[in-house]
Amino acid sequence: MEFSEPAMRPPQEARSLLLRATQGCTYNACHFCYVSRGYPFMAVTPEQMEKEVIAHKPFFPANTAIYLTGSNPFALPTQTLKNYLSVLRRHFPHFEALSMQSRIDDISRKTSEELQQLREMGLAQLYIGTENGNDAVLQLMNKGHSQAQAVEQLLRLDEAGIAYTTFYVLGLGGKGTGKACGEATAAMFNQVHPRRITTTGMTIFPDTPLADMVALGQFTEASEREKIEELLVFLEHLKVDTFYDGIHYLNPLNYRFANANVQEKNRVLADIRETLRNSSDKDLELMVNRKQMRSL
Ligand code: SF4
């Protein structure tokens, strides 16, 4: 069977050597997800990866960062990941860092020793769809993990020395849940040590279980105002030393700052409050054209 899923990457990996590792998602059951539907889970063999590496080698520096594409390549058996890493080291002995995406339960299936070994072989960072810290919302969206499970596994990554960037969806719980989600998500991240937290605004894509929930009246989308209010509550409660990166086309407001930079953070908080105060609901709805994105 051929790989047919378009390869995607986080914005932060724009300059990395991108190598296909998997297509599809081993879980494939989050209600809001449009990414991997219809693509059976498949992984490249180390030999296939080597061919791709050889083809790209002339175009990347010896110390390049490398990103393995796929919704959750970290679900693969540890030995497969080690085989990939051996291929990469053979052709890029000085590669800077290897990153890929993972679910929380993919981490739980690796022993601490395996995490340590992968770190020593070059696994530097995981991108993780934590999505939200509110258990009721995680359950509503069938995310497959709780806040406590996320904290437990992220602490294991801390222990193994594997950095992580987390994704947080503003508005995931729908209308009326913004404040609770902002507080719960900040409380979750305050217990761990994310290198970076990125946000995207909830968008309901067609042909997802969530779109069906909306049609049945089981879910009402949060307004852009409520998403921005959730962001404000979240940032007000976020105390951990991390980097907030909200530059994304699905966000109504785009900021990026080190959370420890109090002056910059206060400037951002003041800007958000002013936007909420001085903009009509209609102005805020126009900040992101989600209807257009729904038809992409
Ligand atoms: S884990 Fe990620 S890719 Fe898989 S279904 Fe959930 S959101 Fe989609």
CATH superfamily (homologous) name: Aldolase class I
| Share of β-strand residues | 15-25%
> Order of strands side by side in the largest beta sheet?
1-4-5-6-7-8-9-10
Q: Give the class-level CATH name.
A: Alpha Beta
| Series of H and E elements | EEEHEHEHHEHHEHEHHEEHHH
Low-confidence stretches: none
Q: Give the overall average pLDDT.
A: 95
- Based on the structure given, which CATH architecture is correct? Alpha-Beta Barrel
Distance between the termini: 26 Å
The number of distinct structural domains comes to: 1
CATH topology: TIM Barrel
Largest sheet: 8 strands, mixed
Number of helices: 12
Shape: globular
Can you describe this structure?
The protein has twelve helices and ten strands. With 296 residues, the protein is of the alpha/beta class. The protein has one domain: TIM Barrel (Alpha-Beta Barrel). The strands form two sheets. The chain has an eight-stranded mixed sheet. The chain has a two-stranded antiparallel ribbon with strand order 2-3. The longest helix is centred in the C-terminal third of the chain and has 17 residues, at 262-278. The chain is globular. The site of iron/sulfur cluster (SF4) has 11 residues, from loops.
